[in-house]
């Protein structure tokens, strides 16, 4: 519908249909942004004209984004495919490249791969070795690749949902620990987090459908900090839950200033960055922004709003934080782009 530098406000009218996002009344903690914090609300600015797409190329829905240690940004896109009405997902592979690699500084495209492999791209994460991890919600699978697209590991059975040690039901995201073990948020149909060893061996899982501590209603994003704490964007419960590395509940962040978390990532400085996608569908959506919180859950920064101009979002779905502090946000639905923000 538009490229990476849209100035078409009419596109905002066609923000489409999404899964219902019911809010739970359960509340433990309410992060607030006080007057001193509001001073920092405009500390990030969008980088206009990033990325630079080849002539005639459109990204399509951007469901995942990550940044590696070599100055590249990896984008997971649905190309010409969108989430269909009725929530019925096809396992037919997308014939266009679904992974696009861009130079972080210039925005120039460095490569593209993934054609014929994925059916409905969703989450993307980059580990400390620059391996690329992705989830496909139609295939019910998790994949690990090299930066150049060589397949290293596959988990889950193609097109077969389940809730055991070898199956997922629409897994949403991955977080990888320094020792190579990893966590999967699972996801749209299941309500759990699963931990695996470096070689893909199942270790344990926790969670069930609900709104209490350690329960989930659509765990949509997951991230780790340097201390091994696990942060889960529990989207339909409108909160972030924090656990230790063994899955023991530590804290809940919830409140009107936090909104409805769609994605979460932790920067090198320990700050936690959360995408508040708002209570969508709504008419119009009430929020579309990025929040920065301390490890204690206090909001210290905010940027973005609903809209189709540079620096705004329609359906912000994914976030990545580069080593230099730059933030990349992927937009699905009619947003269909990735944007770069710097201080």
Helical stretch tally: 1
Report the sheet-strand fraction: 35-45%
Q: So what's the oligomer here? A: single chain
Main-sheet strand order equals 1-24-23-22
Rg, nearest Å: 18 Å
Q: What series of H and E elements makes up the topology? A: HEEEEEEEEEEEEEEEEEEEEEEEE
* Number of strand elements: 24
Shape: globular
Topology:
Elements: H1 35-38, E1 45-46, E2 62-67, E3 72-77, E4 99-103, E5 109-113, E6 121-126, E7 132-136, E8 141-145, E9 151-155, E10 171-176, E11 182-186, E12 192-196, E13 202-206, E14 219-224, E15 230-234, E16 239-243, E17 249-254, E18 261-266, E19 272-276, E20 289-293, E21 299-303, E22 315-321, E23 327-332, E24 337-342
Antiparallel strand pairs: 1-24, 2-3, 3-4, 4-5, 6-7, 7-8, 8-9, 10-11, 11-12, 12-13, 14-15, 15-16, 16-17, 18-19, 19-20, 20-21, 22-23, 23-24
Q: What does the model show?
A:
- This protein is mainly β and 343 residues long.
- Helices cover 1% and strands 37% of the residues.
- It has one helix and 24 strands.
- It has one helix at 35-38; strands at 45-46, 62-67, 72-77, 99-103, 109-113, 121-126, 132-136, 141-145, 151-155, 171-176, 182-186, 192-196, 202-206, 219-224, 230-234, 239-243, 249-254, 261-266, 272-276, 289-293, 299-303, 315-321, 327-332, 337-342.
- The chain has a four-stranded antiparallel β-sheet with strand order 1-24-23-22, with no helix packed on it. Strands 2-3-4-5 form a four-stranded antiparallel β-sheet, with no helix packed on it.
- The chain is globular.
- The chain starts with 34 loop residues before the first helix and ends with a strand.
């Amino acid at each position: 519908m538009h490229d990476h530098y849209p100035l078409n406000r009419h596109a905002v009218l066609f923000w489409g249909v999404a899964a219902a996002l019911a809010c739970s009344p359960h509340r433990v903690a309410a992060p607030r942004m006080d007057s001193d914090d509001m001073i920092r609300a405009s500390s990030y600015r969008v980088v206009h004209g990033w990325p630079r797409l080849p002539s005639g190329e459109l990204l399509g829905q951007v469901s995942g984004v990550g940044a590696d240690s070599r100055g590249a940004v990896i984008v997971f896109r649905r190309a010409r495919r969108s989430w269909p009405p009725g929530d019925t997902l096809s396992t037919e592979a997308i014939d266009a490249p679904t992974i696009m690699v861009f130079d972080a500084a210039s925005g120039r495209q460095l490569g593209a791969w993934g054609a014929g492999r994925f059916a409905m791209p969703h989450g993307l994460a980059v580990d400390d070795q620059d391996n690329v991890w992705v989830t496909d919600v139609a295939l019910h699978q998790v994949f690990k690749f090299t930066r150049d697209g060589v397949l290293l590991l596959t988990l889950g059975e193609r097109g077969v949902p389940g809730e055991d040690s070898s199956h997922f039901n629409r897994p949403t995201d991955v977080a990888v620990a320094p020792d190579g073990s990893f966590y999967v948020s699972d996801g749209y149909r299941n309500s759990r987090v699963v931990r695996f060893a470096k070689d893909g061996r199942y270790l344990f899982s926790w969670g069930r459908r609900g709104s209490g501590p350690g329960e989930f209603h659509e765990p949509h994003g997951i991230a780790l900090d340097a201390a091994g704490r696990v942060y889960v964007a529990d989207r339909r419960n409108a909160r972030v839950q924090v656990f230790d590395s063994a899955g023991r509940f530590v804290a809940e962040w919830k409140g009107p200033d936090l909104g409805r978390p769609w994605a979460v990532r932790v920067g090198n400085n320990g700050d936690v960055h959360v995408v508040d996608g708002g209570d969508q569908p709504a008419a119009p959506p009430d929020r579309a922004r990025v929040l920065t919180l301390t490890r204690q859950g206090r909001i210290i920064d905010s940027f973005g709003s609903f809209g189709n101009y540079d620096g705004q979002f329609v359906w912000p779905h994914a976030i990545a934080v580069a080593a230099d502090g730059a933030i990349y946000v992927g937009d699905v639905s009619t947003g269909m782009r990735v944007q770069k923000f710097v201080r």
